[in-house]
Amino acid sequence: MYTLFLLKSNMKKDKKLEVRKIKTRHSSNMTYWVKNVNSRTTIVMLHGIGSSSSFATKVGRYETNFNIISLDLPGGKNGPKYPGLTIQAIAEKVSHFIKHHVRSRNIIIMGHSLGGAVAAHVANNTRKVDEVIYLSPFTPYLAKTKTYKVASNYMTLGDSKKDIAKKALLATAIKAVAKTFGFTNLGAFTDEESNEFTLLKNNVYKKSYIADELLNEYKSVRQPSFFMISEKDVVVGTEGVNKFAKSLGKEVIIIEGTDHNPFVSSAKKIVDILNEKYKFEKRLFGRKIIEL
């Protein structure tokens, strides 16, 4: 079951977003921006690979029925390098943040791209999460795409002269494809010292993770959840994500005329979808949605 969503409405800007930096109880710095409309519902937004909390700020410019907390995830654009970084490690930090710092009657996590996989892990790690939204998420179906197979071959090459020569050829092809898809950090997929490369190697292009663990994480999520997919997503594959969502028996909303990151061109459509699903309920006691 899916819904084709297309709305036209006027833009209305809210007040300037609040920006905060906190130090968690684990003594690891985490930055984020927050929009507080004094609602009982808060959506915690998780960005994809090589991105940052700013990916969701366009959504925050519109009137919303919900509060927003957009996190800078470990390994993201605004963070330091993390040797051995994994999706599981990121999810642990996000889970800790939600458990100990987010104060809201209804907590929803919304993960975009790789953040979708993080969201599944987080939902299984903490009972404080009431619902999950997967936005153009990374799923096991990604392994069936041609681009995945090319990049996967690159990850398996060693350091022999023959493999180094193959790496050079594949790196050129990967960067060309990445540029076509709109990625600005073209070295992310070939720079072996980068956080992005580490995540790709440890999770995205690791068959045991994508075929088994990731699939089980999605299946294990007990909270209500649904998928939002861009109509023209060539990165994670619109058709593949749609099939995967249906295999889980989940609702799918396809956002017409958009690519992998609908926040860029269709933020208002996303807000309208979410406002329709989550009606405004005022917080009865206090205004804080984050407590340290």
Structure description:
This protein is of the alpha/beta class and 292 residues long. It has a single domain (2-143, 199-277), classed as 3-Layer(aba) Sandwich (Rossmann fold), CATH 3.40.50.1820. Helices cover 38% and strands 17% of the residues. It contains ten helices and nine strands. The protein has a nine-stranded mixed beta sheet. The radius of gyration is 19 Å and the shape is globular. The model is unreliable at 1-15 (pLDDT under 50).
Q: In brief, what are we looking at here?
A:
By secondary structure, this protein is α/β, with parallel strands linked by helices. Helices cover 38% and strands 17% of the residues. The protein has helices at 57-60, 87-101, 114-125, 146-156, 161-180, 195-204, 207-220, 238-247, 262-265, 267-277, and strands at residues 2-5, 18-23, 29-35, 41-46, 67-71, 106-112, 131-135, 225-230, 251-255.
The CATH H-level homologous superfamily: Alpha/Beta hydrolase fold, catalytic domain
What would the CATH topology be? Rossmann fold
Per CATH, the class reads Alpha Beta
Helix amount: 25-40%
Return the average pLDDT rounded to an integer.
84
Q: Which ranges are low-confidence, i.e. pLDDT below 50, for 5 or more consecutive residues? A: 1-15
The biggest beta sheet reads:
9 strands, mixed
Instruction: Quote the beta fraction.
Output: 15-25%
